[in-house]
Amino acid sequence: MKKFGLLIVTILFFSSFSFSQIISQYVETNSGSVPKGIEVWNNTTSTLDFSTNNLVVRQGTNGAALATLYTISSGTLAPGAVLVIGTTDMQATAVGNGAAFYTFAFTFNGDDALALVYGGTTTDIFGTPGVDPGTAWTGGTVSTANQNIQLLSGITTGNVVGWSDPSLRFEVVSTNPAADITGFGLAPGSAAVPLLSSSVSSLNSLSYVFGNGPSTSQLYTLTGTDLDGSDVTVTAPADYEISLDDATFTSEITLTAYDGTATDIHVRLIAGLAAGTYDNEDITNAGGGSVTLNVTCNGSITGVLPNLFFSEYVEGSSNNKAVEIINISGSDVDLTAGNYVVLIYANGSSSVTNTIALTGTLLSEEVFVLANSSAGTTLLGLADQTSSSLTFNGDDALVLRVGGASGNILDVVGQIGFDPGTFWGTEQNTTLDHTLRRQNLIAIGDRNGFDVFDPATEWNTFNIDDFTDLGNPSLPVELTSFSATTIGSTVKLSWNTATEVNNYGFDVERSVVKNNWEKIGFVEGNGNSNSPKIIHLLIIK
Predict the structure, then answer these.
(1) For a tag on the chain, would you pick the N or C end, based on fewer CB atoms within 10 A?
(2) What is the rounded CA–CA span in Å between residue 93 and residue 173?
(3) pTM recorded for the entire structure
(4) What is the three-class DSSP state of 215?
């Protein structure tokens, strides 16, 4: 009888513990609602096929009976391997450690029991089903609430009767699991896997308008765990560039003996690209013993900027300050809707000193005059808009932007971030105590606000307080003569041009009845020309 009794006890013991599917790690967050999840270890010598035998997670909430919560019905799990089921924030760690990841928004708390069922058989129980422990099951320093806990070394079997003391099976990994889910995805007894991680998987909407690159930068934060101390190389794809300080950009960065410290990598779309999309280009982060980490860049370059630029600059006596803006875009421009602004960068500053929002509509081939509101009567009479913020001297840079203060640069007088002393230029062609008028051949503004500025390159200089041409748009053609000569039944029209700017051609019209004009001919222009041209057209009378 004693032997029989002993045999019964032995059978009961082995029916409570088995080599099977075990909860090998568990996390219940200490802040917010994530992370929450479990790691499942296949502690058998066979591959688990979930399409044949489903893996079911059951939960008993607040002492209630166990009920099915989540089912895995496809995929496999190799002998000795683990899978992770949990909230989405756990995915990068689990996958980085080589484990399969199944997303599920667990809502359990420390007082909720869990159970694993494989092929209809319970293989492991976490906590005690049907019992409410209050807030959590605890033992020593181990708790089922607010901790990341893992299976103790040497525990190789599941428990199918439950337990009330987690310290008999688990040890604490972290008491701050909201920021630390170390270990998830690593099978018990496995060596730590070096892993590079990024704060984001992709950077999107890196863009600029054609001709006005580079784009505004974005960043991701690179970190690493269990790295081997070797260098990590960050390499940008062909159409992007990277930086550690958001100032000096390059195509490749080496992090020497990188130890995983959080490092910001700034990224931008390079200048000079054609209009189009630049999507799915990967920045590679390689080294440290980790698998290569890719961060995907997505960007685009849109159409041509509206062609508005400064056509006259007045740095006169006292408050006689003004700028004239010309529109040669080919269509009217709503300055208000487009958020056009004039910015002043004083005394070499790289930060904006004054911002003036432009208002109204600037018609095609017309000009718009912005003047200081305390300027003299003559200048105020020529102004389309006034502002007390339009105060500048010869050493202050002026910038025209579309899209607000951080929008695209259309033109610059001066150089952002550089103080020339008193003025830009050389006497008598300077930005101090002069009126500057854009040369006729200039057909687009200076869209690089940081390049060297010399007014002699694109501007003609006039005396202080010379407003004679302010408010009058410069025509794209400088006509020096025009004549008409009768030759039998035809009329020969002849005209000479000194310069032509973006000139497509000349329409010739005539009127038989006053103010009733009809087109009778067309002569092609010379595009851009700074040398005299002679043009003829014969017309039958």
Answers:
(1) N
(2) 15
(3) 0.42
(4) coil
Coil/strand/helix, residue 406 = coil
CA dihedral (371, 376, 381, 382) in degrees, to 10, reads -40
CA distance 419 to 348: 4
- Between CA 97 and CA 115 the distance in angstroms is 24
Beta bridge pairs of residue 537: 493
Distance CA 529, CA 527 (A): 6
Per-residue pLDDT of the chain (541 residues; tens, 9 = 90+): 333 333 333 333 333 334 578 999 999 999 999 999 999 999 888 899 999 999 999 999 999 999 999 999 999 999 889 999 999 999 999 999 999 999 999 999 999 999 999 999 999 999 999 999 999 999 999 999 999 999 999 898 899 999 999 999 999 999 999 999 999 999 998 666 788 999 999 999 998 877 678 899 999 999 998 899 999 999 999 999 999 999 999 999 999 999 999 999 999 999 877 778 999 999 999 999 988 999 999 999 887 778 899 999 999 999 999 999 999 887 888 999 878 999 999 999 999 999 999 999 999 889 999 999 999 999 999 999 999 999 999 999 999 998 788 878 999 999 999 999 999 999 889 999 999 999 877 888 999 999 999 999 999 999 999 998 899 876 667 777 888 887 877 878 888 887 776 677 777 877 776 557 788 888 888 877 777 878 766 665 5
DSSP state string for 491-528? EEEEEEEEEEEEEEEEEEEEEEETTEEEEEEEEEEEEE
